[in-house]
Amino acid sequence: MKKISPEDLDQILLAHSLWLRSDGRKGRQADMSAADLSGTVLSEKNLLMAKLSRARLKGATLVLIDLSQADLFRADLSDADLSGADLLLANFSQADLSGADLSVADLSGANLSQAKLTGASLPQADLSRANLSGADLSGADLSGSNLNRADLSHANLSQAHLRKVNFSNANLQEANLMQTSFSGADFTGINLKGVIIDTLTMAQLPTDIEKKYKNSFEIVELEKTERFSIVREMRLPAPYYQAGLAILNFFGMFLAQECSGEIKIRTEFRNYTVRMVVDTPNARVRDQIGEIFEVYGLIIQGKLVPEALSGQIRQVRRLENQLIHAAALLEDEIAMLREIHPEGSASEGSMDWLRVHTGRLLQHPETRPRPLKEVPRAAAHHIALFRENISAMMKQHPSLRSEMSLLLQKLDMESPDEQDIHDIHETVSSLKKKNPAIFDEFSDTFYESKMADIRSVWSDIFLEILNRLA
Q1: In whole angstroms, what is the distance from residue 100 CA to residue 84 CA?
Q2: Fewer CB near the terminus (10 Å): N or C of the chain?
Q3: Rounded to an integer, what distance in angstroms lies between the CA atom of residue 8 and that of residue 18?
Q4: pLDDT per position as a tens digit, 132-166
Q5: Which residue in 186, 170, 185, 99 sits closest to 136, CA to CA?
Q6: Among candidate residues 152, 71, 68, 77, the one with its CA nearest the CA of residue 119
Q7: From CA 305, how far away is CA 43, in angstroms rounded?
């Protein structure tokens, strides 16, 4: 494989630019087939229709490059940064794009048949009418991507993140959908005939789609490996859901890349609760993965630098970018909720709270609130005292009867769900905005009832809300 010097590369680019401007009458079409360009920086260069078949571009920086209609047959682009690239109608057949960053790239009409895209990052990418037949997309992040009329027949999408993907009129015949997550995806006109799917993934499908194709499915029962499984479950209420999910998705992709073949990762969704399950083959691997959870949790909380997770600079940058992306998602969600509920609590959203919340739960699942039925009698006494104090406040302030009665109603429940928690948050926030003095009185009531000193789902919920609004 020939290595191209920086000087020769500059000459090739100049000749190719002239060739493009003159419609082929002058200059020369770039032909770097089988060339070694690993680690090369070609950001924003114009390589429209260039010949790069079997070229080695491993780890190359190709941000915003124009490779539309280029020939990259069997090229090695593993770990390359192609974010925002123009790859319209490019030929990536049998190319290696594993671990590549293709976020927001235009791959419309591209040929990616039998390409390797394991662990690749493709959020918001345009893959409309792309040929992905037989491609390996296991562990890839395709969140929010456009796969309208794409051909994914026989593709491997196991453990891929497919949240809010546009699958309209896409062909997924006999694709592998094991342990995928595609909440909010558009399945209009999709072909799922003969897909390989597990029962948990199948449960995420719209009822009409499941009924239409279920008889053709190859349904696989997941192995029972709970003994060596790691489970992390967390509640991500509005406006934190999208931002928290972005943090978890990155971690899932990192684990899939670092431990390829050794573990199985699946993410389950129920209302605003996200559950990540990592199945490992033995205690040794389980303990190793547990240590990675610990490190990632500390990084998310800001107690460790991102370099502690990986010695690879590219992975560190991706983690840093993912946290920035999560913060942007949170800001967008807050802005949207402010428009919908001007008097609500959306403006109280805090990225610091989200990082502490997700980081601690990734470290230690036991930090989750316990169900009320597990609360000891002493704790139940303090909850009863808190209810009495709320009742007394309701009598003293008749204008707040609706807010106080709602809080009492919720406290009667044994196991509040996400909607109940959201209602409590909205009510206490409204209380603060209507009358800050009464909010302070309510806060004093909480602490005077010794609620902050007990371990219960209610103490955790109210303590969290009061801390955020203080």
Answers
A1: 12
A2: C
A3: 16
A4: 999 999 888 898 999 999 999 999 998 888 888 99
A5: 99
A6: 77
A7: 28
